[in-house]
Request: fold
Amino acid sequence: MNRRQEISKDLPMIVDGLLLGACLWISHLLRTSGLIRLDRLGEIPDFSHSYWMLALIIPLSPLILDLHGYYSHPLSQRLEKLVTQLARSGFWLVLIIGTASVFGRLEVPSRSVLIIFLILAPLALMLRVVITRALLSRNYRLGTIGERSVIIGSAKDAEAFVTGLSPMEKLELQITQRLDLDLLDTATMRRTIRQHSAGRVIFVTPQSPLNADLPISCEDEGLEVWVLSPSVGGLVGIPSFETAGRSRVMVFRRLTGDFWQSSVKRLIDIAGAALGIIILLPVALIIAAVIKLTSPGPIIFRQVRSGKRGRRFTILKFRSMVVNAPDLHADLSRHNEMEGPVFKIGQDPRVTPFGAFLRRTSLDEIPQLLNVLRGEMSIVGPRPLPDYETEQIEKSTHRRRLSVKPGLTCLWQIRGRNSIRNFDDWVRLDIEYIDNASLLLDLWIILRTIPVVLFRKGAH
Reply:
């Protein structure tokens, strides 16, 4: 997505956030003004008591809508699909407000205001979509926005390119002419481009020698030149251009690096870790006391592990093994039940009796909430491996699990955990998470992790 597309997407998101904030205020106004009369309902507090809801609705609503694809293809998306996306987004918004109300002990001033808002908000959003579509369609057809395009290439490549375009892209590109490289010479094509007042030339068969110096001459005339490039050197990441000094650099990324999503994810990590520490503090104190009484040695186990990009950090866990467990590792390596660089055995003799209980219940992981607070880990992400195991990973595809911040839980935890015996299968689940990472997926994994931990599925 280029910068212009990002702006055209961000603007509706900003408008929708403000629009939904206005809907909450209007809902409160309708309720207090008496225009909507609801029997047996008394007076409600001033709108200032709803500011915390406003602070959630304005920034989070557009993000939730975006995660459901609400802003994709603004001209071509069917209305029934938009309604479904609005319904799903509304569910998650209510869930977030309810969760914030319960755990943050925040008051919902009036449930009736919230109900009116949930009726008014979808209508306002749909009205915004209708107006946006009408304005975009009108402006594109009048030619007041966008550039006329001419396609140059073989008939087969041109047809494949046009067929792959969405209705919105076809309208935006305003393709006025297709020029077949096999039928026309360079001079004729150059003359045709000028006659059609084209502002953009799209070369769909860039490798053809028949193009000659046409792309360079089009650029010299100030035209926007597009060159179709299925892949460069086998790279399939999302390309973008950046500058380094006087050099132009083509950058390929497999991760989108969405600023909003990463920012919200970090806020969720901080809030979740802080809340978890507060709730689990009594349990942690009891565990610490039992460890101290039942096994000699430190309460907290520290180990160097590999984080994002292989950056080392010290992970914290409640000690579940004997003190000299690292010294016994070499003698037990032949009993490894995992295929690959990872070491795991079902009945590890180094584990203490109480440590076995901690591992089955995952209570030994509680101190890692401090790693999350420090920014070394996330709540959801691939599990960090010990540094010495990471060094044994040779496959590039396996090391891709290091491209994101490690976490407390991920797909591996909810789809088998220690019952998975092959490191390739483990990595496949991590890559699946990385390729589909989203806030909704994180929430789904967290919710699925709860029963896995409670019923000890795959844990030993």
Q: What stands out?
A: The radius of gyration is 29 Å. The first strand starts at residue 149 and ends at 153. Residues 1-7 have pLDDT under 50 and may be disordered.
